[in-house]
Protein rogdi homolog (Oryzias latipes), 279 residues
Amino acid sequence: MLNPQRSVSELPKMSAASQVERAVLEEEFNWLLKDEVHAVLKQLQDVLKVRRCPRLSMKTTPLLTFWFGLFCSMDQVKGVLTLQGEALTQAVSLTLNIPLLRSQIQDARNHVNQALQLLSSRDESYRFKTGAEVNKLMDAVMLQLTRARNRLTTPASMTLPELATSGLMKMFSPPMPGDVMINFYINLSKLCLTVYQLHVLPPNTTKNFRPAGSSVLHNPGAMFELNSNRFEVSHVHKVECVVPWLNDTLVFFTISLQLCQQLKDKISVFSSFWNYRPF
């Protein structure tokens, strides 16, 4: 049986210990808000702006060159592609102006810039008052970084008629044969070139015509209609080339997202001690 007097005498001692523990935790939490948060913000800016994906904005230094050869029904086409920042420069037999490819890199760069603006909006003189405020900032930064990464890892899906009228066919001089379509896009750390050889379906064909939907890569047998003519993809050729700086950029995105999440995890550690406080 417990001694009531002993239990009562121990209460002040337990309360004092609890108060000391809470005071220590509060001091650590205040240090986290004052110093650690700004250290992480600076580290994020260093990763994104100094060590980073600086090449998302480089336009003068050739970053990638590779040869390709296309075998069409009429002739053979050869060329050299050089990726400079967001643009594919003029190459042999080509006048390159690829808005879809440029859009991928531009969009990724724009999202990185928005993340940097969010980070720089809280300089070292700014005092975070609550953990919720830090989490809100980290969520906003992570959203922009995720969108930037997704633009490089998830190429746009297109229907075959959209691809045929996208302007990609106008990049060749002289023009490509009418039974060939091409597509350029970035997928992860690779620059991809896809060539579709087409077969015109006779107007009176009895073949079951099923227009293909939207896709990044269409398979042989895919059908579509354009200008009252029906086509079928007979062959698909794909060329890929690894772009080292794109791989580095994706790694830096991952590092940055991990830094954001780690800071959020540190903030959440204190939530159990201040359930009554909007940490």
